[in-house]
Design goal:
By secondary structure, this protein is of the alpha/beta class. It has a single domain, classed as Alpha-Beta Barrel (TIM Barrel), CATH 3.20.20. The chain has eight helices and eight strands. It has an eight-stranded parallel β-sheet. Helix 3 links the parallel strand 3 and strand 4. The chain starts with a strand and ends with a helix. It catalyses: D-ribulose 5-phosphate = D-xylulose 5-phosphate. This is Ribulose-phosphate 3-epimerase. Keywords: Carbohydrate metabolism, Cobalt, Isomerase, Manganese, Metal-binding, Zinc. Belongs to the ribulose-phosphate 3-epimerase family.
Amino acid sequence: MAEIAPSILAADFANLQRDIEMLNASEADYIHVDIMDGMFVPNISFGIPVCEAIHKHARKPLDVHLMIEQPDRYLEAFSKAGAWGLTVHYEACPHLHSTVQHIRQLGVQPGVAINPHTPVEALSEILPDLSLVLVMSVNPGFGGQKFIENTYKKVATLKALKEKFGYNFKIEVDGGVNLDNAASLIQNGADILVAGSFVFGSANPTATIADLKNK
């Protein structure tokens, strides 16, 4: 059974508190918070004040995903805004070890995300220091994209490395996750499933979260 992290990016921003309270009452394990800057990815989402507002009402840990350039500038601010975990992109961090150490020093769980074109092997030197590895199963920036099938192989490779070396990081998958691929992702080694439009676009988001949880 995987943990579920619904992405607030797909929520109704005009009724954000209502949707957060729905997640609080659901079987969700985290609230996934996608931060986009319009530069690292082509979309702009929201920033620190909205993260603070989400944290004010959330009773689930905030899984904050920084899809931004030069994330080091904002690590402390997002930590203060209530992040339980901060995930930065491998592709955005020229000094990744330093960035990960800074996150941990802030008392926050450090994660690293990889885009679909980035091989798992690129993380080999940093895996011992991570609490989370996020495998992007779509190209980051917009919700509702089609799942990239090669994700299964990447998740399985990460699981094998984790077991071989005794690492403790969780494997998270983000993008195009639904009831058709959830079971296969879990079988291959996924620990956390991020789902946005599939949850919030459903007739009963609470039931959809429960269905994903019990895959």
